[in-house]
Structures are given as structure tokens and as C-alpha cells.
């Protein structure tokens, strides 16, 4: 009989982390188990989990207010579901889902950690959130999404049962030799750690001083698309498909990541698959794939927006350097695909199946 694993997410909003949960679920199936996704709340523009079954613990849309007010109802529905699946394994994927941890036996409780989530909180709350997350992780067994996170969690006293490395989809493998008419591309998403303020400053500098620089923005959020609508100096792509994103990256020279912290940071890696060279602030997780020559493209967090833009423009206009780094980026991307093909075996060895 297949071992059943429920993976709990706050919602199915379109993020790299949610996409990775879907991939992990498929890996569990490939390893001989059965995975089901549980979303605690609904959200607008949900990611597709097809053909995986999805259960919802609430029909309400997720929001900070709903997380507080709706948690008792969510917990009640969870306990009923848990009662009917007494032999299942439960994997929690986000600190909001950790509210369920006290009601799951330690031998059936797993955590899949894709980031150091306390880094998202305002500075005055980071200490208490870090302590709550780390203490909760001791209740079960932890899977880390890459070696950077495994090392960081171990440093904080968390025992990591296994590293299940995440990677970008092979669907991002694109042509390396096409015409690249976008100089710099970046992703804008909600979240203080995403540093939208730096992105807005860079785009403002571009309009003021570099009108001929071709820039583009990918975003899942309507407000950012609206903010730049009618601005001919910036191309905006709202919720593009994977195929559309690959085509965009095939046109782009440099991918600029401005986040303060990322447990991994999928977008720069996805861009690498299509030969777009990453230039990233030192967000942590990017070090898992920006290796060798690409490590020189990791910028200090203290660098101001003006200097970041200068670095990006210098790289975008250095075709010899780009051609070399493009090949390096693609090799790293391809090598990583070979490594993550072993994930079903990693999951079997972890003990969850």
C-alpha cells in the first residue's frame, strides 16, 4: 500500500515556493508514495496542481486578518481530516502552517524548509519569530531545500534529516544564440524582503538618465503592472506562463535580483536556463547556483541603487563577458537538472516513504 503524504500550504498563490511544493508532490509519487496538497485558504490566481488532488480547509481568501480570525475553523477541519487519515505523514511548508504542528505526532510530522522565514518579518519581530520557528522544527523531522539552508538550520541547532535540492524546471531551457533586445529584466513581487523600493529607484534612474536602456519587469501582482502601464520605457509582463517567461529570458541579457534574502531564489536560475546572466544582491540562497565565475556577480547588500544599476549596465553592454557567462550559466543549469533527477531516491532515503 502506498504511503500517503499530505503537504500543507497556506494557499496556492503563484510563487516559486508553491511551485516547488507541486514538484515535490510529484517526486513523492515518482518515489512510490501518494501525495495530496492541502491549502488552508483560497487565493486569487491560484497555481495549478493538476493532476494532484487538492483539499481546502477554508473557502475564504487568505489575508492577515483571515489567518487570525479563521484559524479555529481551519484547525477544526484539519483535525477531522487527520482523524480519517491516521496513518498519513504530514508535511508543513510555511510558518503559518506550523499552527497545526502541535496536533501531529512527531513520528508523522515533517517540515519542508525553503527559506529562513523569520527574515521576512519586520526587524522588531524577527527574534521572536525565529525562536518560534526553530522550536517548532524540533517537533518533527526537517527536509531542507538546498545545502545553504541545511547549513543555516544546522547552525541554529535544527537537525536536518535530508537535503532535497530544488531546481528550476527544464522547461526554462532556451536558445542561447537569439537576438537579445532586453538589457535588464527583473521580477517585482509583494514583500518587504523583495525590495520593491530598490526596483522603483532603479527604474526611476533609468527614466531620468538612461532613456535608451531597455528594461522589463515580470510580476504576478496587478498593482505593479498598473503602475507602469503606459510607460513606454519599461516592458511589463503580468503573470506570464512558463513558456512565455522562457521566451522573455531568451531576449534578455541580464537578470537583476534585488531581494534582501532568498532561501533559494528561483527566478535568476530560471533565467540562466535560457542564457540570461544573473546579477544578484547577496540574498543568501543564490550562492547555491551562482558558482565559479558567476559568484563575481553577487553584489553586497550595502550597495546603493545607483551602483547596482551601473553594474547591471556595464554587464549588459559587455558582450564578450556575457557570451562567456551565458555558457557558464547554462552548464550550471544543466548540471543541476541531473542532480535533482535523484530527488525521488533522496525522498525514499529520508524515511518519509
Question: Could you walk me through the main structural features you see in this protein, from its secondary elements to its overall organization?
Answer:
The chain is an alpha/beta fold. It is 40% helix and 17% strand. It contains twelve helices and 13 strands. It has helices at 16-30, 64-69, 71-84, 123-137, 147-155, 196-209, 222-228, 242-251, 266-273, 305-316, 319-340, 343-350, and strands at 4-9, 34-39, 54-56, 89-92, 109-113, 141-144, 160-163, 182-187, 215-219, 234-238, 252-257, 277-281, 298-299. The strands form two sheets. A seven-stranded parallel sheet has the order 3-2-1-4-5-6-7, with helices on both faces. Strands 10-9-8-11-12-13 form a six-stranded parallel sheet, sandwiched between helices. α1 (16-30) links the parallel β1 (4-9) and β2 (34-39). α1 (16-30) crosses α12 and α6 (196-209) packs across α10 (305-316). The longest helix has 22 residues, at 319-340. It starts with a strand and ends with a helix. The mean pLDDT is 93.
Produce a short descriptive summary.
40% of the residues lie in helices and 17% in strands.
Contiguous helical run count: 12
Order of H and E elements = EHEEHHEEHEHEEHEHEHEHEEHHH
Which percent range describes the beta-strand content? 15-25%
Helix content: 25-40%
Roughly what is the average pLDDT, rounded to an integer? 93
Q: Describe the main β-sheet briefly.
A: 7 strands, parallel
Tell the overall outline: globular
| Beta strand count | 13
Give the spatial strand order of the biggest sheet. 3-2-1-4-5-6-7
Structure classification: alpha/beta
Q: Radius of gyration, Cα only, in angstroms?
A: 21 Å
Distance between the termini: 11 Å
Q: What low-confidence regions span 5 or more consecutive residues with pLDDT below 50? A: none
